[in-house]
Amino acid sequence: MGEAKRRAATPKSDRPDLETGFNDAERAHLAEVRRGAYRHATAQLGSARRAASASAQADAIAAIHAEAARVLDTATGEFFRTTREGPAIEARIACKKGCNFCCHVNVEATIIEVIGVAAVAVKDPALRDSVLATAPRLAGLDALARVKARVPCPLLRDGACSIYADRPRSCRALTSYDAKRCEEELNDPEAAREQRRVFTWPRILAAAATDGIQSACVDMSLQDATVELTQGVATVLRDPGVIARWLAGESPFPAYAKT
Ligand code: SF4
Questions:
Q1: Ligand 1 centre from 138 Cα, in Å?
Q2: How remote is the CA of residue 171 from the centroid of ligand 1, in Å?
Q3: What is the full per-residue pLDDT of the chain (259 aa) written as tens digits?
Q4: Ligand 1 centre and the CA of 168: distance in Å?
Q5: DSSP 8-class letter at 161
Q6: Structure pTM?
Q7: Which end of the chain is more exposed for a tag (fewer CB within 10 A), N or C?
Q8: Ligand 1 pocket residue status of 141, Cβ below 6 Å
Q9: How is the chain split into domains, by residue range?
Q10: 247: enclosing H helix or E strand
Q11: CA-based nearest residue to 133, from 154, 103, 156
């Protein structure tokens, strides 16, 4: 790529600086994840704006979510395979199919992620109904109220994530070393505890990808708020026309209020 094009593909927005506290190789990797996410999102959003139908728009946007997931999974897998500490860290991770304590909390997601998840849910009537039935029960619940309500994510099926390959980055990047502690936090969310131990590298990678994607939205004058996953997916399922309105610069998604 020529220098002019490389500069044009560098995010212009004033987003938080993620590039502190890492070694040179890690900094370079994070910067490339962020730049790659920005470039891919900019191209796909341009395609979505030119698309002739709501489903073609959704597909172009869902591809942004899918590519970020691929990059995150690849980078995490490389860490496990190629670093000295990787195998020991991988062996300590407690997350496994059927363990879903963390699937009873609000999930903060980008608009692009909820469009990607809605593109999957719309093809499965039971999943669609589950999201639409659960959204009103969760409306307005802050993080603590949601945990206390003990309402499971509507995308859980038989105890496992039914959209595992397409799950948002918040879910994908959360890797716990202690399932018992996750259970305790669900059962007694207000108890004073030390910070939970988690493997942080996927979260840092996910933040870099999100930063690039959100910067592309900002630079294209698109609503870049984060949304609560169930509310955001329900918004798309109720009215697929919100995608076109969002691409036209409107702000049709309810922004997530953490507290
Ligand atoms: S999307 Fe999947 S992993 Fe995330 S909270 Fe819902 S069921 Fe759990």
A1: 15
A2: 6
A3: 443 443 344 444 444 445 556 788 888 999 999 999 999 999 999 999 999 999 999 999 999 999 999 999 999 999 999 988 899 999 999 999 999 999 999 999 999 999 999 999 999 999 999 999 999 999 989 999 999 999 999 999 999 999 999 999 999 999 999 999 999 999 999 988 887 778 888 999 999 999 999 999 999 999 999 999 999 999 999 999 999 999 999 999 998 876 6
A4: 8
A5: E
A6: 0.90
A7: C
A8: no
A9: 21-247
A10: helix 241-247
A11: 154
